[in-house]
Amino acid sequence: MNSVIIGTAGHIDHGKTALIKALNGVDGDKLASEIERGITIDLSFSNLKSKNANIAFIDVPGHENLVKTMISGAYAFDCALLIVASDDGLMPQSREHIEILSLLDVKSVVLCITKCDLTDSPRQNEVKKECEEFIAKFSNLQILNTFFLSAKTNLGVDELKSYLFNIKPKPRKNGGILHYYIDRIFTLKGIGTVVTGSLISGAISRGEKLLCADCGKILTAKSLQIHDTDTQVAYAPNRVAIALDAKTSELERGYILTKKGFFRGFNEADTLFRGKIAHGEDVSFCVGSKQTPAKARIIKELDSGEFLINFKFEKTMFLKFDEPFVCLANSRVCGGGRVLNAVIEPLKKANKAEFLTALLHKNFKKAFEILSKFHRHGFGLFSAYQRFDMDYDSAKAIAKTIPNTYFDEATLCVYDNSAIGDIKELIKFIIDKNPHAVFSPTSIALKLSWASESLASLVLSELERASVIEKTGGVYIKKGANLQDLKQSLEGKIFDIIKKGGIAPLAPYNIYEMLDIDRVSGDDALKKLTYSKKVVRLAHNLFVEAGNLSQIIKKLYDLIKEAGFADVANVKESLNLSRKFAISYLEYLDNLGDIITIDNKRYLKK
Question: I need a labelling partner for 469 at 20 to 30 A (CA). Which of 107, 111, 115, 406 fits?
Answer without folding.
Answer: 406
